[in-house]
Amino acid sequence: MRIRLLIADDHAVFRSGLRALLEHEEEFQVVGETGSGVDTLRLLNEKEVDVLLLDISMPGLPGQRVAREALRAHPGLSIVVLTMHEDEYYLQELLRVGVRGYVLKKSTGSELVQAIRAAHRGNVYIDPTLAELVVSPYVGRPSTRLKDPMALLTPREKEVCTLLAYGHTNAEVAEKLHISDRTVETHRTNIMAKLDLKSRADLVRYAIDNGMLKFD
């Protein structure tokens, strides 16, 4: 019986190329594609899926939440994260959630195939370039995040966080940083997830508490 795959990524061209790559493997069957977290959870309820290939930077629900809710509703599901993020935070959080694979988008197709096979067998596969993070003394210790939460944010996320805290809209932040509105929304979603914030008011309070805002 072939391994049934669902591809969740918001870039249609990337999904198309990934589907073509995976369908060259006789053991794989791509049963669907989706471009958002909400649609991913819906399709998981509609289709029989063995392995979910999940991008964690899709619009809407944060990738961590998609993974958590997917595994809660489908305990037998295996999730392989396919991402651009070479970030210890994401790796730690997603391993805690229960994903079985973490592969960088710059990796080779053969590494992704290995990750899918390993995840389907119930094993864990981490991209070789991130192997040192698995043995890091900080992995699995949430208290380290609380000591210096600012360390969780990338330089760009700090810029976005500051501008949002000053009251700028996504469009205004995009114009100031010369990026797209969609990229700003992705950064905003990641900031809220990393810092466990629920609202803009929480974000403003966080920025003030951490000296990110300057008042004359």
Give the fraction of residues assigned to helices: 40-55%
Strand content: 5-15%
Domain module count: 2
Question: Which structural class best describes the helix and strand composition?
Answer: alpha/beta
Q: How far apart lie the N and C ends?
A: 67 Å
Q: Give the strand line-up of the largest sheet.
A: 2-1-3-4-5-6
CATH-derived architecture of the largest domain: 3-Layer(aba) Sandwich
**CATH homology-level superfamily of the largest domain:** Response regulator
Fold-level CATH name of the largest domain: Rossmann fold
Rg, Å, rounded: 18 Å
Indicate the mean pLDDT.
Answer: 84
Basic shape: elongated
Low-confidence stretches: 135-147
Number of strands: 6
Query: Can you count the helices?
Result: 11
Provide a compact summary of the structure:
Helices cover 50% and strands 13% of the residues. The protein has helices at residues 12-22, 37-46, 63-73, 88-97, 109-121, 131-134, 143-147, 155-165, 170-177, 181-195, 200-209; strands at residues 3-8, 28-34, 51-54, 78-83, 101-104, 125-126.
